[in-house]
Amino acid sequence: MRINKLKILSNIQFYRAHLLLLIIMASVAPNTYPIQLPDIKTRTVFAQCIIKAVWDTIRNKGECDRDWQAVYQTNEYNIQNAEQSAQKLKKIIRQNKTQMPSAFNFGLSSSAYQSEGGIGDECASSRFYKKQGLATPNRACDFWHNYETMIKEMAEQTEIKIFRMEVLWSRVQPDGPDTFNDEAIQHYKKIVQTLKKYGIQPLIVFHHYTIPTWFEDRGGFEQ
Length: 223
Hints:
mainly alpha, three-stranded parallel sheet, globular
């Protein structure tokens, strides 16, 4: 399927109208329930960021056209070879002159629930899917046990410099707020050390849409 170029790139009037609307909203919109807007100083900063982003896009229209052509029209948006497509994407990012390469972290990310495997009813998501009669990840790709091999392959095959990983809350505190699973904590430390060993910076998140079952039973974040 061939995707047409975004008309937004060649329609300056579109930018002007929406930019004016954004400035008005950011500057004078009242703080009324149910939407709570930040103070006027914060909204002014936001408006300045929007103006800069729009202006940079207009100024670099030729480059945007070139990248759109390279990504969507040349390749026709078909991913037939994952490794080849990843290399093309990396090449496009490196050729981008809008940002310095040092300001862009090319990496990968994962969700513990979808990749680690071996997650049971201590995780509220697992319990929910079972109640709904839906599939659970089960072993998934077993990253929990195969992390060394997988991280080595990531480093060698993709040359990434950063990896966003989740420390699963229900592994660290499976039974309640007052106890910790030291074995799981030590295991996560080994994963982090392995990432560093292969020159990959770990980016840690503690919540990727999953919570411990005990926390859900107490009302979750609403409480």
